[in-house]
Each structure stands twice: as C-alpha cells, then as structure tokens.
Amino acid sequence: MSIYVVGHKIPDSDSICGAIALAYLKNQIGEPAIATRLGEPSPETQFILDKFDFEAPELKLSYAGEQVYIVDHSEVTQAPDDIAEATIVGIVDHHKLGDLTTSTPLECWIRPVGCSNTVIKMMYDFYNVEIPKDIAGIMMCAILSDTVIFKSPTCTTADIRCVEALAEIAGIEDFKAVGMEMFNVKSDVKGAKPRELVMRDFKDFNMNDNLIGIGQLEVVDLSVFDDIKADLEADIAALKEEGNRHTVMLLLTDIMKEGSELLVVSDDADLSKKAYKIASENGRSWLPGVLSRKKQVVPPLQEVFA
C-alpha cells in the first residue's frame, strides 16, 4: 500500500515541490509513495515545474482509508477535508506545531528553518540518498521562494547551505538569478481575476475558534496593484462573508522594499493596531520589514486571540 505525500490546500511551491521530493526519497528507501496535491499549481510553481521538466503531482482530494505523509503544515484547516479518516504516518514541516492529531505513532521532521524542502534535504542526507539533478532544482527553487531569496527573517544558515548544495547538484551557477525569474513570474498579475490573486497563497488559521484567513502576494514592485487594489479589497470582504471568517487579511509584499502593505477586513476594527502596533486607515496599513506570514504576521495575531 503506497503512502500519499501531500501538502496543504491552495498549495505553494514548497508544498508541491516538497511532495515530489519526499515521495522520491521514500521510494528510494523502500517505502512506496505517491506525490499528490490539493489544488492547482500557482504560476510560480508551474514555472518551476516547467523549468525542470516535471508534471504536477496527481490532484487527489480524498484520503479516507489511506496512509498520508503531510508536507509543509500541521493544521486541520489546511489538510484534506477527510484527514480524520486517514492514517497520518508522518509530517515534515517548518511552521509552528498545529492541531493535527493521530491515533498511531508517526514520523516527524519539524525544524525552525525557512522551508520544508530544507528539512527534506536533511532527510536525504540522513538516509544517504543521492538527489537527482531535476529534484535538486525544484527543491532549490522552493527554498528560494519561501525565504524570499534569503531576505525573509525565517531564513537560516541551513537554508542558505542547502540552496548552495542543491544548486551545485542541479548545475545552476546563478541561483539568485533563478530566484528573481520566479519572483518576476509572481509579479505578473495582468489578466488575473481578484479571487485568483487573493487565493494564490492563502491559508486559514483557527485562532481560539476564530477563523482567520491570510493571503500573501509577493512582487518586485507594488505598483502592479495600483489599478486593482480596490478590487482586491472587495474580494477579501466577500471571502470573509462566504467563509464566515472573523478576519481576512491580504499581504501585498514588496521584496525589494522589504515590507508589506496589509489589506484587512475584520470584525475587529482595531485588529491591526492590537497585533502590529500600526493602525490601519480604511483597511490599509504599511508594515515595514514584514516579509513572513509565518514568523511576523501569524504569531502577533495569535497573541491577540489568546
């Protein structure tokens, strides 16, 4: 019986590339595994897959009765809808420990690093398994994406060393140039509908029984949003009502200026001030130095809701 390796809902590059890389590793050590996904690849992820000649993993939404290895999260809200009916055999992640629980022992590889693929590289090293050139390439790109080409406060020495090692395996001389190619793809919003943009990198969090949705769009120049910002605000307001959420936030992150404009619709008009000490004006605020949802946005919110 094969293990299904799957990331979170609305998968990002770490989630999909990690599923591919981990499934390959498991197969190499005699544990049959199949990489799957819970949604469509983002434009950035598709760029990575195309660059290294990969097909996207199988789209699989139901896992009842299956063995599952979770990648890049440990939250019930981000897992398959029927995860309670599956057997979780492992988790590899770089976020806070979430609320997934199991009835049987499991393997856990959780490290405070910038990307799940950094942890997966550690797993390859532990099992002494050679990483194929193409898999090294997608792992490298996932780490560059999650660490914002090493600019994110989540980035560690381990992430940098893993990228350098993976780039050498993949035959990539200028990995930062590849990273900028990826972020230029992310910055292309022409023709995209507001809902598509809001949901490109969107996660729900349960904070003391309050559902909080947080999306993030990372670009090289915030001016790409000038003509559509009002449409994005209208869409996050609609998304809040549709999902019965307490709050929906959208981070518009400028990787060159190293900060984020926060758009927020919430039942608490003072939430931004409470969490980030910066009041919002008409639902907008500038958060200097904020690049990471995981490390800089979610923890202060959890303190508010605690």
From TrEMBL:
Provide one Gene Ontology cellular component.
cytoplasm
List the keywords (alphabetical): Hydrolase, Manganese, Metal-binding
- Domain spans labelled DHHA2: 179-305
Instruction: State the superkingdom.
Output: Bacteria
The terms under GO molecular function for this entry are: inorganic diphosphate phosphatase activity; metal ion binding
EC number(s) on file: 3.6.1.1
- Give the InterPro entries listed for this entry: DDH_dom (IPR001667), DHH_sf (IPR038763), DHHA2 (IPR004097), DHHA2_dom_sf (IPR038222)
Q: What class of enzyme is it?
A: hydrolase
Q: What is its cofactor?
A: Mn(2+)
Q: Which reaction does it catalyse?
A: diphosphate + H2O = 2 phosphate + H(+)
One family from Pfam that matches here is: DHH
Q: Which NCBIfam families match?
A: PRK05427.1
Q: What is this protein called?
A: inorganic diphosphatase
